[in-house]
Amino acid sequence: MLKQPLIHPELLEILGSAGHGSKVLIADGNYPASTRLGENAGIVYLNLAPGKPTVPEVLETLLTAIPVEDAAVMAPDSGDEPEIFGEFRALMPDLELTEYGRFEFYDEAQGPDTCLQVVTGEQRIYANVLLTIGVVMP
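Below the sequence we write its predicted structure tokens.
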């Protein structure tokens, strides 16, 4: 039995085989995960029920397991910032969020460096975050 916050076997397996520069998408419930899955990405469905779990809940747990050097979000064309971006910043205060438009975000998230897509029950729109794994320093 593990004593750390992240105990999901499939997530641990995929993250354990990932390296510096690999990307992890935490997707909201509206994200077209099955049709936008990258060629090298595993997919883990955590969407238990509407709103459960949320993207910030999954992010908070993943941050206990991996170093993150970049975090990208899907920004709305309106220029209005979704409230959830503030939650992402609170969990990753040392990172600036990289913003992409919808289709550019899809391209980034399904690129060859994406090793994992985690589908949540998050109901808020624009609640996707694409993490780039950093380096574990000696």
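The mean pLDDT is 96.
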